[in-house]
Amino acid sequence: MRVLLINNGGSGSSEFSMKEARFPIGLGYLSAMLKQNGHSTELVDRFCDHDAWVDDVSQFDFVCVYTSTPCYDDALRILEKLADFEGPIAFGGPHTSTFPLTIPPRVDYVVQGEAEHLINDLVEGKFPKGTIIKTQRIADLDALPRADYELFLDKPRSYLWTTPFSSDRQPIFLVNSSRSCPYQCMFCTVRDIWGRLWSAHSAERVVDDIEYLKRTYEIAGVYFREDIFTADQKRVREICDMLIERDVDFVWSCETRVDAGSDRELVELMAKSGCQGIYIGAESGSQRMLDHYNKEIEVAQIIETCQHASANGIKVAMSLIVDHPKETWRDRWATRSMLKKAKPAMVWKNPYRDEFTRHGVVEFPTYPKRESIDFKFEGGVWSGQTDRLVQPEILTVSE
Questions:
Q1: Helix (H, G, I), strand (E, B) or coil at 174
Q2: Which residues, at least 6 apart from 174, have a Cβ–Cβ distance to it below 8 Å?
Q3: Is 257 left (phi over 0), alpha (psi -120 to 50) or beta?
Q4: Which of 234, 269, 320, 381 has the fewest CB atoms within 10 Å, counting from its CB?
């Protein structure tokens, strides 16, 4: 079967930043699973190229649309463009996990969760139409095939090939080595989408994938663009040791927390293995606000992280939350004081958006509840799952 994979775009009215156009790596994993079963895939990435489309949608047998809430306006535009498409349509992605009732009835399948073990059964018509399908989490990510990077490189696209940390080295490829986050910051919705279970590729799988990308695409580096690369610091040390032992000549950057960055020895090892940059969510220089955000960090750790990184040639990009209604002038003064001591290379300020904090208000129509299916598969776990917006009556389907 021919499957069209669509990434919804960032051309709508959302106030979220839409400038970082990188591979939709999740669709790359789905493509790899489909190709293992003999299906063919094509990508329309409207996030990097807002007007992208195919010449003839009727040549496809099935359409899968990745949906995110900030870009959901475009997902609805995509559905309009599919008005004459007679085949099945599935919506997945973060939006379907949090707002399944906003999916129009024309969409045949609403998928919640990791779809790698589901995708082949889905396109082969093994589920009743008009349903919400909730999947288990994947216990062992190493069991998945490598993401299908050819899906992204089969034609010219406006992807970003550098990072703020290594503008002199390219191409920089996106890599996701872990999923979800074990922490509970009050403004973050990651756990609403993924649940509480943090999972990751093993260190050996990560380094093997990097070496494959170097051999195949001559990459200069990778950006571990995931919620928290350093959740398991033992794994990070193993990755660094392997990169050094195998003499992998490349640069890398990641997203981390300051309780990892304040470990001087870990930062030194990261730098030795090629790390050029880290992105940290400091959010505030006020301990009162950090406690309010449930960050589980201290201001001193923010400063230590920046100092350790700077001493080892690693650039720090720091995000801050501004304009929170509980923030006082003392809190803002404390943040300015922290910045003078920390001296990060980059500071990204993000206005606090209460309407998005816990998915409180979304301006989309809602539709009647759908029948729900729990999809189980070998190597799947329900551990750490949050409740989704599904009906209590559950059907059980096993792979």
A1: strand
A2: 22, 23, 25, 222, 223, 225
A3: beta
A4: 234
* CATH number of the domain located at residue range(s) 2-141+361-398 in this protein: 3.40.50
Global pTM?
A: 0.91
CB 66 within 8 A of CB 89: no
Nearest-angstrom CA–CA distance, 196 and 78: 31
Count of Cβ atoms closer than 10 Å to residue 27 Cβ:
25
Q: What is the pLDDT of residues 261-320, one digit of tens each?
A: 999 999 999 999 999 999 999 999 999 999 999 999 999 999 999 999 999 999 999 999
Cβ atoms of 352 and 313 within 8 Å: the answer is: no
Name residue 373's beta-bridge partners: 133, 395
Peptide bond into 94 cis (omega under 30): no
Q: DSSP letter for 101, please.
A: G
Domain 165-344 has CATH 1.20.1260.10: no
Residue 51 has which token pair?
Answer: 């007007």
Residues 251 and 278: beta-carbon distance below 8 Å? no
Average per-residue pLDDT for the chain? 91
Q: Where in the chain is the domain with CATH 3.40.50?
A: 2-141+361-398
Model confidence at 382, in pLDDT bands (50, 70, 90)? Answer: confident
Give 174's strand partners.
223
d(CA 182, CA 188): 12
